[in-house]
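## Example pair
The file below holds two records. Each record gives the amino-acid sequence first, followed by its structure token line.
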Amino acid sequence: MADVLQLQSEKEWLQLLQSSKEQPVCVLKHSTRCPISSAAYEQWNTYLDNSPNEAVDYALVLVVEDRPVSNLIAETLDVTHESPQLIVVKQGKAVAHTSHWHITESKLNELLSEV
């Protein structure tokens, strides 16, 4: 399984955003209160267990518990907040994103094979 950074502070997000200029980042915004988000989280974990792109950094933000971080991600990337939401960041910008039932292992493979 790939290493996943759980973002709990705005500082951690800003550092990760800066590092995306060197290596792409994939962020999952996950709500621990939502069954759709739970399904997306399972797909995320399946992807990470089976075939993660090792040239990508992975991060998770719990949108209820760490709302300020989730809001800052939406603001800095100019991507409307959704939950669950998957965002691929490269060179400090969102290059792809999807949400809800579209977050699947196959979609992760598709999005992350291109970065």
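Second record, same layout:
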Amino acid sequence: MEFEGKVALVTGASSGIGAATARLLAARGARVAVNYHKGAQRAQDVVDSIRQAGGHAVALQADVTDPGQAGSLADATAAELGPVDVLVLNAAGLGAHEAPIAPMAELTWEALERVVTQQLKALFLTTQVVVPRMIAQGGGSVVAVGAALARRPAARFLPLAVAKAGVEAAVRTLALEVGPQGVRVNAVEPNLILTELARHIPEEQRRAAAERAAVRRNGTPEDVAEVIAFVASERASYLTGSCLLADGGTAFA
């Protein structure tokens, strides 16, 4: 129960890595705000599963790429649960099917721009409203969900690779800015994880990713949630500005 008495806000938590993280943080004692944009029923299912397990959670709707809604989300979390101690930035600003997977020659500038802009807005706007509140209360932990693509790009994934490289740069910069005020900022960078997004990736690519990994399998949302929970916890109190690969050993395979 290492998060007993803590409040966690997980953006994009209606499915996949976000949902697994919300469940795990709640199981370890946190009161969890399960943010969603459009998946109301899925978010409520996550909340129901947390409550059935004896945890405390609420579902809160907000589009975190909208400044007003990002601010309202922070206000609603504080009103429902209390000030945020742990912020998990999982929302990417786009649905799983909206990030194009194609060679550069087949992309438009608008498609690339949209993926990068939405990803960075989801990170920037939420962080900008939550982190000053963390500082005012004496500290907190921010964990952004990046991607191994930021360091090991793959053909046909240019928009996501560029967007996630931006996440990595933002995390390192923010860590320097707010570390003296007691806020840690880190990223967890998974490779291909068996989420809703993976269903849009050809089976042969999923199989190839598993074969490249040192552990010889694809990762699950629960695998990544465990890493996020560690990074967010006081066990990682000396860790900030770090971008941890959660890729089953793919980067060095």
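Notes on the second record: Residues 109-136 form the longest helix (28 residues). The mean pLDDT is 94.
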